[in-house]
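Narrative summary of target 7.
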Amino acid sequence: MRSKTLAKVLGACGLALIAVAALVPAAQAAKPPPPNERFAGCPSVKENPKSLVCLRTEITGGYFQMGNKNVPITNPITLVGGVDENLGNFSYNAEGGMSKAKQKVPGGVIGLTGLTWLLEFLGSEALTLYAVTELAGTPDLNIFEEPLELPIKVHLVNGVLGNNCYIGTNANPIQLNLITGTTNPPAPNKPITGKSPEMKFEGPLTVFNNGTFVDNSFAAPGASGCVLTLFGFIPVNIDGAVNLQSGFPAAAGTNATAQNYNLEILESEIVYP
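Modeled conformation, tokenized:
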């Protein structure tokens, strides 16, 4: 099966950050035995008969810039799941999917909102802000050729902002078109270039290391659900403050992302012997 799988993998290295197509209930979540525990989240064939190949993708670094905010990717983001023999129909069980890794946003809540008076009430530590990339729908992609089309939303996490402060929504996502080649963005952005990964074999494991996906042609919608909640007072919507201070919505050609990634591929029958 290796030759058949590898022929298809060569066109499918863009599986970093692939979204869910199906979710197996937690009660049925299989766990791989050693030494393949890191593939937990890939459905066994019993859970999903079409899940013949297990994938583990890790975003190891890079950045995500929208509006006037540039957030470095410092905490790895993992994605674990399974695909069919054509490397399609991505699915995962309750152990897998995309990890909700927090990335620290420079400037914190003050930089996001411009509300400097919050420092007097809460102090700088309480105003630390995190961004968490979440899926905003099922990707529309051809895994045999780029780009990888990925709808996402970014959750801005801090108690001051409420629980539902987002850039992008399921109805109006940030639509990424990730490639390893050179982009052709609208002005004022200039072309940027990604990097194809290096392939090697480690026994039955196929590894793609040191790849980079890029996109600087996407638009970023305005903030939604950002509500100032202090001391139990009546909540005040501050979407406008976030948009004004942070440059949202941001038109295509003013945003960019680069994502360094590694990808591991192993047949399900090996993960679950």
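The helical segments are 2-9, 108-113, 118-122, 239-246, 268-271.
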